[in-house]
Design a protein that fits this description.
alpha/beta; 214 residues; 7 helices; Mitochondrial cardiolipin hydrolase; 7-stranded mixed sheet
Length: 214
Amino acid sequence: MVPAVSWRRLGAVAAVALGLELVYRFLRRRPPPVREVLFFPAPLVCAEPLLSPGTCCSCPLPHHTDGALSALLRRLLGARRSLELCIFTFSSPPLARTVLLLHGRGVRVRVITDSDYMAAAGSQIGELRKAGVVVRHSQSSGYMHHKFAVVDRSIVITGSMNWTQQAIQTNHENVLVTDDGACVSAYLEEFERLWEEYDPAGYCFFPKDDQNGP
């Protein structure tokens, strides 16, 4: 006959083994952390293989999906629920098409940009607005100089790079992609703060000194 103490020990060992098995299975299913650094300039490539898979494009650009720009597009195209975009100046057609594609899929897209540069030559902000993307802009004298995006409230894309053709093809730039929880929370908090600050309902179109008329 097995003593009661031995049964208890066997039960404890079995419980520990089961717990370890469950932890192991959980860790196997858990995706690896997102830690990616992209450097620019990047060679100009055709974005069609990523933006319109299966279509045939006859443009003279390379059609491979390697490189920093393609990696950035893939991260953005991975959005399923939301995209918060806070960008100083935005004139890159491939990136604009990506944002419009997400908007067309039903992803909630919100854009914050700088008031001075939103109307610069080549700016894509007007195209986004025409498509129904909600855009808010700065109202102060200082630049809204951020360059970051938050994908599905879980991945931050940030760095030195504006979303312009010059930045992508010519400048030395860096982009960091991470799902670190503390970083994601901080960027979301900053986005929501600016989103409220730049609410059109609070716009002041006339300086205080001019409100009383001549």
